[in-house]
Amino acid sequence: MIRAALAAAVVAGAGLGCGGQATLPAEVAGADTALAACRAKADEDERLACFTALHAVTPLEAPPTVSDARFAAGVGLFTSTRLSGTGTVACVSCHANNNAGIEGPVTIGGRTLTRALHPSLRGGAVDDPANTRSIARNAPDLVNKLLGGPRVMFHDGRVALDGRGGFLTPMGDQLPPGLENLLAAQALVPLLTRDEMLGYAPGSNGGRSENAVAGLVGDPVETDPWPVWNALMQRLREDPALFASLAAAFPDVPADRLGIVHVANALAAFQTRRWNATGSSHGFHGWLRDRTRWPLAAEQRRGALIFFDHGGCARCHHGPRLSDGRFHNLAVPQIGPGHGRGALETPPVDRGRHEVTGQDGDRYGFLTPSLWEVRATAPYFHNGVYDSLEKTLRHHLDPAAHARAFRCERDAPLAQDGVRVACRDSIDAPALYADMLDRLAPELQGPPALSEQEIADLLAFLRTLSNGNNGGG
């Protein structure tokens, strides 16, 4: 009963990764006893099995069944540029098909290039400085998006379940009926986002090329999305092969009734079938399924014990998705142009979840990501500030120190074409950093003291969180 109660409390969101001293909430009756019981087990595999049970970590369930026709339509739509305002950008432009659904970082001279605005979206010349501006948010991975019962999507959770069988999105009551799941609701948002798929109207923001779709609506686009969605559907109808594929995916829907909701459902179906780790016997997932048949190496097992015990990582990275589905402030260095209202401030800032809720307690909070395929999802954090898993882990272990020590000139990534990404550090934006650190997630205060060997073991474990099918190094 104690173990069941503890697991339920953890899944309910009792605790972010790799920080703090306790790994279970002290207020849960029996927590110390249960942790002590796990620690007392002499065999490392038995000890790890005990910890994973406490943190409700189980093998991932099977994904929803996706028909071949839905998958084929989704592939075509995912790779088609017809869904962008300019007709030059596709989902695959930012979500690579062979690497956990993201593009890995590119380095030049040892410096990472962050993702810049696609040149065609703004409409300027290739060498126009406006086209080397980095986008505000890092493209999230697409692994296991519907598994483990997620309730929100995006770094700031702006797409969410409403608790009544519907969805909360920036489109409000403009959302079309018939969306099959949360991922389908999410798929509609990039089509309306100027820096992702829609682009800018001719003459705005320095743009010089035609983008009739982007000019159909003003800002915020989400309040009047139908002119854009209808224009994109018209483009799809002008592509006989692509539209035939969409019709085949929904054989019970008359061709003249196919709409943007079917595009969203097909995109979600493709992503669900393409990126999942459910049947894997690889790494930690294999160990969860049968630890005798698929054992972990000694250093991986040691790292797992650190992760679930004194490293504190499982405080927020728990459950089948290795995520609590909540939002936390990790004092991530502020790079990029800022986001939403924060982009208009001096200095520009990204306040994360606060942009969605307006709640003071959500300032600088971002969604705890699932850790499946974490080895393949660089660059890390919501803004892609770190290009390696080790840098990201070390920030988790002492976020306050790393935030203070971060220096734009030395540590910030570069934008494409060698232009340094916009950046603020604790020297040139002291008030901003003081505010972030004052609001640092409680779970990351009082960081654990890990040796270099323990950090190496922890990294070895994190690299086992893969199904061996999504690329990455």
TrEMBL record:
Compartments, record wording: Cell envelope
Domain of life (superkingdom): Bacteria
Keyword match Heme: yes
GO molecular function term, any single one: electron transfer activity
Pfam families xrefs: CCP_MauG
Keywords: Heme, Iron, Metal-binding, Oxidoreductase
Residue stretches making up the Cytochrome c domain: 69-187, 298-466
Annotated InterPro entries: Cyt_c-like_dom (IPR009056), Cyt_c-like_dom_sf (IPR036909), Cytochrome_c_Peroxidase/MauG (IPR051395), Di-haem_cyt_c_peroxidsae (IPR004852)
Keyword Magnesium in record: no
GO CC terms: cell envelope
Record's protein name: Cytochrome c domain-containing protein
